[in-house]
Amino acid sequence: MTSQTLRSDAASAKKKRPLALLLISFRTFIALIVVFAFFGLTTPNFLDLPTLVIIAQHVAINAIMAIGMTFVILTAGIDLSVGSIVGVSGMIAGLLLTRGIPVPPLEVTIFPNVVETMLITLAVGALIGLINGLLITRLNVAPFIATLGMLYVARGAALLISGGSTFSNLVGDPKFDNTGFPFLGSGRILGVPASIVALVVFALVAAYVAARTPFGRYVYAVGGNERAAALSGVQVDRVKVLVYMISGFCAAFAGLIVAAELVAAHPASGETFELNAIAAAVLGGTSLMGGRGTIAGSIVGAFVIGVLGDGLVMLGVSSFWQMVIKGVVIIAAVVLDQMQQRMYRSYALQAQMT
Amino acid sequence: MSEATLAAETRVILRAEGIGRVFPGTIALRDVDFEVRRGAVNVLIGENGAGKSTLMKILAGVIPPTSGRLLLNGKEVRFESVRDAAHHGIGIIFQELNLCPNLSVAENLSLVDPPTRFGFDIDRARQLDKARTLLARLEQRIDPNQLADDLRIGQQQIVEIAKSLAADVDILIMDEPTSALSAPEVEILFRIIGDLKAHGVAIIYISHRLEEILRIGDYVTVLRDGRRQAHAIVKDISVEWMIEKMVGPSMAPAQEASAATGKVALSLKDVTLPRAAGGFLVDHVSLDVQAGEVVCLYGLLGAGRSELFECLMGLQSASRGRVELEGNDLSGETIASRIRHGLVLVPEDRQREGLVQTMSVRANLTLASLRRFARLFSIRDASERVEARQMIQRLTIKVSSPEVEVTALSGGNQQKVVIGKGLLTEPHLILLDEPTRGVDVGAKAEIFRVMRRLARDGLGIVFSTSDLKEALGNADRIVVMSSGRISGEFARAEATETAVIAASAPNFHGRSAKERQAS
What we know:
Chain A has 354 residues and is mostly helical. Helix content of chain A is 73%, strand content 4%. In chain A, strands 1-2 form a two-stranded antiparallel ribbon. A two-stranded antiparallel ribbon of chain A has the order 3-6. A two-stranded antiparallel ribbon of chain A has the order 4-5. In chain A, strand 1 and strand 2 form a beta hairpin. The two termini of chain A are 16 Å apart. Chain B starts with a helix and ends with a helix. Chain B has three domains: 2-247, P-loop containing nucleotide triphosphate hydrolases (Rossmann fold, 3-Layer(aba) Sandwich), CATH 3.40.50; 261-342 and 429-519, Rossmann fold (3-Layer(aba) Sandwich); 354-426, no CATH class. Chain B is globular.
């Protein structure tokens, strides 16, 4: 063989990615198809539309949180406070809808309408994210620690708002013009449940931001190599603060959906949700080292977890076993991720040799 | 002649026969023979991608060969791991630094086999002693208690070398050990190599610096496209011979005319960076650079070149003094704003500071100039692609598509990506910190050609190097730094090796200059 054939060998290898690498790249999607097929075959009515809609509604909450989490993890950060933000945001909405905002000097109480209530709640979510971000960038607290602290602070705040009790019957009062909150949980837009519509909107906007805007590119750059990004003029601190605000915002929205579905706000709601969001992102191929991952992947990851969970319930598998299975799936996902990295590296190595 | 060959044969300690290494889809090595002789410097040269690193990794037990065999002292051996190879007396200093940044120099030096008290806890005193002895052997004044992370790259390289001296080896592989070293440090390394040779250690030496090989090499093997191209005794050959065997016929390096316009692009006044321990890392540096001019910042390790660049770019918040770019005062501005004003830095360590390894070539190229491609919220895909592709052509970056991940490129091409990223910001002045570090001969020349072309287009260029030939061959003006100060300035016509060296290292003045003249 001459060196020319060597080159052409290499060139053809470059064009044709190994099939295994291709399969493993779509592993989460394949996993989703597998779980659907499995439950479709074993569980009666599993593939009926009403069942699927219910599953999607369950997934929506987790998926919206996973979207925010993906931005954070892409910068090589982590946000453990999202579950508590779910709790605190539901409580704020509950408080505003049932008690309003008292203004002592005027001896009046202002009742914001539902849209205003939601906006205030979302703003609080983003504000908590802002505090996380400032702790991490200005005071140099590790993301794990800063958000772990916030997990407790926000949960405590949720409990303090009502003294630990639940705000129930959040239907509003026509007198105060603040009815309609449950729509987010049980209403339908063009026949599609509102929470699913919300998920679609969040997903589209997030995917666009991540893939097509300078900010999205900066998020990937900060996670891939923070110093190189800084030297390229990327305002690293600003990017980091923004991703935690996005995460807080998404979590607050998820909290609103939870409260609207239950028509009640409970201070303990959202406990351990942060782990579901992280699991969804990781399952979807987001690397905890930062720089790698997609919004679509995380949403597929959230669906795998959701479908698996609901399917196992319908199959009558005990909740203890459900936890074991969920854990195994997450670990398997990361193992596969590592395999893909290795395969990609050796593939990249070959490309370099040519 | 045959007697000599016979003598050489008996000195062979390690023989690689018919080594082949196949990666799926690629043949990295094909039927390569390689002999390693006791008490000699066995040089391996070749362009990037010729298979040098693969061969070294096979010899050091990092990866197994696909075909062929290794004979150690005439007996066939098979290495399962680096540790296994180390048990057979083979040590390797990788080109990439392998120190634990979170541990002290002394801890790094005793990492594998720390001295213990009764096999129980680490004997810190002995560990320190050991480190001091090793560093003293290398004539380095590095505090063994310092964290590895706090050392500059060249010093880290020295520690890396010390680490391999700590283990007693019969065969020591050195992959470009001098790429980060300054001239006096190289002298020390060469003395150590001589010392090791005298003790019968076989050294396998990889370098892109060919003059170096003529000085210290005994046998040279040339690889090209994964094949053994030539083998010779170093006494019999010349730099031209090596270049010809590596790349084909040699090209004469023609020094081009200066394109300096006389208009001041960058002006520094009393730029100063205090050292935490007292004194200055950058000591009141004042300098003007003209548009179209290529200025070389020559200096030894620790002379303050990188720190000066960092001050100019706004990476050192403690820096004082005035930095003006085309009349605009940049002092106190953020990095982003300096880039907007037309200043850009190509950093020394492209892996750590230059590239985002997880992103494609395109995304890396446009990272610093992304705002230009943004319309409203989104990045205009088409124009980003076009400009990325144009830059790939302009700098002749060898890559099959802009979408390839940047880690898949060779060192020289990665460096061009970092330069291209800077150029896309449409700078007026570009700072390049050691732009040819870890880049092969061909790519080096190309990087300097690019710099020339940019200067002709009116850019001011400041590059730093510790390679004297590079400084003399490519700059319009050489500014020498020593201990944070500008210690000499030479127009191209008046710069001589002796003068530049004398200015760069007052402490080494007499000896270095004499040695240079002698050689």
